[in-house]
Write a structure and sequence with these properties.
single chain, about 220 residues, two-stranded antiparallel sheet
Length: about 220
């Protein structure tokens, strides 16, 4: 009997130990669940509120961006209206000169570019007009279209010719009724988009060799 009780005691001890571990596990589980619930409440109360605040900020930024774009569009619209008015005024003046100006039976368009120094640039375009300014043996009406970055004062230096405004979009000439040039002359500007000229003269690097050191304008060739 004594040894039987001893055996029972041995069996009860691990069972009791397992029960104690299970109890502790349950207590810890309950504590963890409460902790999770508490953290979830904090996230819901604080972080989700912050997320809602961020969404408000994002909407406010979008509203500001939309207003800024509206302002820019309004400014661009006003600029475009002004530009169209200037183009119409220039076109009307140009029509009169083209119809009645000296040598108007034949027309040559010279496209300027900001080449070399100003003195050399003037010489370049005087030479171009001398070389290409006649059509069928007669002096043609010369129009000079300055490049927007060209600072040479063509109106003062070439008063006998028609000088367009540098800001005047050359592409507009494609839409001037009955406007046809016998020839358009460029140095480096590619005249592919010009549809109002019978002849397109692209002078290029060989022409420029006469006015400046070739290595200045033949940089692409030096790469190879």
């Amino acid at each position: 009997m004594k040894s039987r009780l001893s055996l029972q005691q041995r069996l009860i001890f691990p069972i009791a130990l397992l029960g104690l571990v299970a109890l502790l596990s349950n207590v810890l589980a309950v504590f963890s669940i409460n902790n999770v619930n508490s953290n979830a409440g904090t996230i819901a109360d604080e972080y989700m509120a912050s997320e809602a605040r961020l969404e408000e900020i994002r909407r406010s930024m979008m509203d500001i961006h939309r207003l800024a774009l509206s302002h820019i569009v309004a400014q661009d619209h006003a600029t475009m209206i002004k530009l169209v008015q200037e183009i119409k005024a220039s076109e009307a003046e140009l029509d009169e000169k083209l119809a009645f100006g000296e040598g108007h039976e034949h027309k040559v368009l010279v496209l300027s570019e900001p080449l070399c120094d100003l003195e050399t640039r003037e010489r370049i375009f005087r030479d171009i007009i001398t070389e290409y300014g006649e059509v069928e043996g007669r002096r043609a009406q010369i129009l000079i279209k300055p490049h927007p970055r060209d600072e040479l004062d063509y109106k003062s230096l070439f008063p006998e010719h028609i000088v367009l405004d540098g800001k005047f979009p050359m592409e507009i000439l494609n839409f001037v009724k009955n406007l046809v040039f016998d020839r358009v002359v460029t140095v480096f500007t590619v005249p592919a988009a010009i549809s109002f000229a019978k002849e397109k003269v692209f002078l290029g690097e060989d022409f420029m060799d006469k006015y400046e050191a070739p290595e200045i304008h033949r940089q692409n060739e030096q790469i190879y």
